[in-house]
């Protein structure tokens, strides 16, 4: 039996039940027939495990990293700690437990709020990341300063590595603030390039997921310290629409000023991100623009929308408009 790390020492990932498992059938019952029929169905089927949801491969890869960390540092509590954070009713708990045991997931912490807000619990658990299928709950978390993203199921199944966690990040309004993106939206590409050239030695402010990249970097350093840089089970990627020569310098210098790095940096100069992500095969990709999230998902990447920054005001489609997302009346 593994020892559960203390929340203040761990990298805590809070995941909703509908991000971890596919609960589309159950959600339909809730929406069409109401709460009582929904709970009755869950109880009648509680020995049947849910099918995996979009965040499932990511959580499995996180647990594979923990296995490696425990081998190298048996007494360390600097591990990933996964918390199931759901607004579901406690009656659904048995089916969730049975599903977790069926897939041999190591998730011991549950928080089932019965429809109440999760924000206070996310803060109490010191959540480093919150993944949900509910865009409204994610927006609430972002507004409270919690790193969060709405996870979408990919359009096709893509095999991802089981022994190396791969996480891809957009730059502006994800790792970085939306400062530069505001210049681009307001004044166009030429002014954006001028602004970035003039400010290339001034680090950008941090975005909502900077802290999660930092947490991943700390775990990577533990492997490097054991001579395992080339066999590290965590790999990170910067996948940005920025151009390398025209605006890439500031992005890289910003990461350096924070003492951070990504293993790979891809500057796509406005080209679609989906095809490149299809080659990377990350467990999850974070972006602030639904255009890129949708493009990645169509080609098989589990993409997560970070509702932060100027793009949320100008893009024509938000996470709530996407077919895969659920309406306001939903359980998580």
Automatic annotation (TrEMBL):
One GO process term, biological-process aspect: adenosine metabolic process
A molecular function (GO) term: nucleotide binding
Gene Ontology annotations for the cellular component aspect, listed alphabetically: cytosol
Superkingdom of origin: Eukaryota
Xref: PANTHER family: CYTOSOLIC 5'-NUCLEOTIDASE 1 FAMILY MEMBER, CYTOSOLIC 5'-NUCLEOTIDASE 1A
Name this polypeptide is given: Cytosolic 5'-nucleotidase 1A-like
Organism, as annotated: Sinocyclocheilus anshuiensis
